[in-house]
Amino acid sequence: MAGNRWRFELFSFDFAFGALAFALLSSYTLGSAGSDLGFSENLMLASRTNQAVAFGAGCLFAFGNMLLLAAVALLGLSFAYAIATASALLMLAAVEFNGDRALLLGVAIVAALLAIIVPSLGASKGEATLPAAGLPVTVRKSASGRVSKTKQEAAGMKNSSKGIIVAILGGLALGGVFTPFRSSVFGQFGMGAYAGLVLFAAGLLTATLFLSLYFMNMPVQGGSIGLSAYLRGKVTQHVLGLVGGALCAAGILLLSLPNAFPADAQPSSGALSAAALGAGVLAVVLGFSVWRELAQAPSAVTRSALLGALFVVLAIGSFALAVEKVAVPQIPQQVGLTHTQFPG
Fold first, then answer.
1. Are 14 and 245 within 8 A, CB to CB?
2. Which of 30, 46, 72, 327 is 20–30 Å from 86 (CA)?
3. Are 77 and 286 in contact (CB under 8 A)?
4. pTM summary value
5. Phi, psi of 316, deg, nearest 5
6. Model confidence pLDDT, tens digit, residues 62-95
7. What HEC string does 21-69 produce?
8. What sign has the CA pseudo-torsion 65, 69, 74, 78?
9. Burial per residue of 182-209, b for 16 or more beta-carbon CB atoms within 10 angstroms, e otherwise
10. For residues 152 and 139, is the Cβ–Cβ distance under 8 A?
11. Of 272, 288, 275, 239, which Cα lies nearest the Cα of 80?
C-alpha cells in the first residue's frame, strides 16, 4: 500500500515507532485499569532477566520482520509469506512440541517443507514476473551524450534466490520469538502482557534503528540510500507504517492476553498457534486477490504458489492439533472405604 518506491528499510522505521506508540498507549490505559496490579507495578516487580528476555525477543522480531519485508520486496506477498510462515512453523515445531502426537507433528513438518520447496521452485521459474523485476530505473548519460538505462539491483545472485534465502531466515527468526517472549511475560516473576509488550516494542525499535541503517547501506534490493530518503516520504507512507506497527503490536497483545485468563477459560494452545501462523496465510491470500501479484505470471508459477499456500494451511492445521494439550485422565476415587481408629 505504501508503494513500490517506498523501500522496506524506510517503512520499518515507522513500523517500529507505531508498535511502541501502541504499546505505551495501551499500557497506560487498559493496562493500568482494574483492581489488579497496573502496568508500572508489574514492570517494577518483574525480574531483570525477564525484562532482558522480552527486550531481546523484540530485537529478534525486528531482525525477522526486516528479512520478511525484504523477501516481500523481492518475491511479493504470495511467495514470501508462504515460505516464511512454513519456516516459522519448523522453528516452533522444534521448540514447542512435547512428544505426545508425533504423527501429526511429522505431517506438519513434511507439509511445511513442501510449503518451502514448491513456492521456491515457482519463484525461480517466475523470475521475470517478481516485484523485484520492476525496480526503479536509473537514467545515465555517457560522455558522448547517449542515454543508457540500468536497473538499481545488485549483480550476481538472482532476486528469486535472494528472496528465498531471506524469507527462510526471516521465518526462522520469527518462529523463535514466541517461546522466550511468553516465558518472560507469564513465567516466574513475569511482567504481564502490557509491560512485556512495551519492552518488546522497545527492543523492536532499538534493533530496527540499527538494522535499517545497515540495509540502507548494504541493500538486498536497489542501491544504497540515505536518511534523507526517509524525510522525503509522503505523509500517507509514514502513516501506513505507523498503522502497520500498531496493528502488529495489537495482534501480539491479543495473542498474549489469554495466557493471563483462568485455566478453564484459556483458548487451546493449538488455536493460539493457528492464529499466530494464520496471519501468513492471510498475507498470501491478499497477494493473490487484492494485489494480483501473479496476474502476469505463467500458469505453472501460479500453480506453484497456490499449491504452496495449500501446504501452508495443511502444515498449520496439523501443527495446531499436534501441540494441543492432551487431557490427563483422572483416577476415580474409591467409594465406600473408610478409615477406622480402634481404641488403644
1. yes
2. 327
3. yes
4. 0.87
5. -65, -45
6. 999 999 999 999 999 999 999 999 999 999 999 8
7. HHHHHHHHCHHHCCCCCCHHHHHHHCCHHHHHHHHHHHHHHHHHHHHHH
8. positive
9. bbbbbeeebbbbbbbbbbbbbbbbbbbe
10. no
11. 288
